[in-house]
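QA checklist item 7 of 12: single-chain prediction sanity check.
[x] sequence parsed
[x] length recorded as 390
[x] structure emitted
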Amino acid sequence: MTAVTGRRAAIVGVSLSDCGRVDEATPYALHAQAARRALADAGLDRSLVDGFASAGLGTLAPVEVAEYLGLRPTWVDSTSVGGSTWEVMAAHAADAIAAGRARAVLLVYGSTARADIRAGRRTGTLSFGARGPLQFEVPYGHTLIAKYAMAARRHMHQYGTTIEQLAEVAVQARANASANPEAMFRDPITVDEVLSGPVIADPFSKLHCCIRSDGGAAVLLAAEDLVRDCRTAPVWVLGAGEHVSHTTMSEWADFTVSPAAVSGRLAFERAGVRPQEVDFAEIYDAFTYMTLVTLEDLGFCGKGDGGAFVEKGRLLVRGGELPVNTDGGGLSAQHPGMRGLFLLVEAVRQLRGEAGDRQVRVNGHELPQLGVTSGTGGWFCSSGTLVLGR
């Protein structure tokens, strides 16, 4: 292939597999279902896909998944950094397209996390292992949820953030989900209902935590010379940033600052836009605190102001100043594991005006022009942020 530098990359196809309660499918089947649907969405033939990215499945990811899909890519990526994996992979894919190393790159994910637990094929994940640096934390029962809870408590102590403000994140996510027919939970909830639920890890009650679902997603990126052959309007990758922070809590300099503070700054700088110009945000929300602190670190409000920012319906699709997690997010729509790819699917649907009753409208009637997705991995261990535009 002759090197072609500087080509723009666009997302031209997106799709979800069946999501929510999927008891009969395998993870491979969900990968395939999402991939077929994304290719059909773009209107491109599978033979044009020369790049492939996947993580989380198979002994030799993504080789096994590519084989299952009948693909023989000449560019691959298996970067695995938790929930931020897909934003990081999308950035890598855009770079590969710009450098002329690929023309069409497929990102795909699928998981039967919920069905596996129900069938006894696995248990709930209490820790990520006990080797390496983690050996100094695991013996004390320091689970993933506990780490997020500790960080939330620090923010509450340092900035006066209240549990009611954190609960508002869950309430507004559910309100957005109510307009999403693909969301797993759509019934409205109140702040009191969030607070009165069983405590999972102080200060988080059940509704402060993401749901567990089955499901998959796929995103197809293409070089600009392929865009004219697509059936969909392109959504351009305008800027991207990635950052890794820590794995052990003792090496995390400040529990109130996430790695999105770096990835977000880089993404906005490279896109040449400011946070205030963005019309909506899709933010990884395994826990309510993630949404709040990521909003701060992306620059939508000042450090310590996240609690006040999320009040008064500011995150709602209908009437919110900055609609956030417009599909309901991991708190209400679906969360089958590494959810970062779902953020990209929803962002593209919003920018293309395909979000139905949950469609963001700027000034009451205009389609959004700019959106941001920000994925988080581990316990704020990594972050990937993308700025997307029409």
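[x] summary fact logged: The chain has 13 helices and eleven strands.
[ ] second reviewer sign-off
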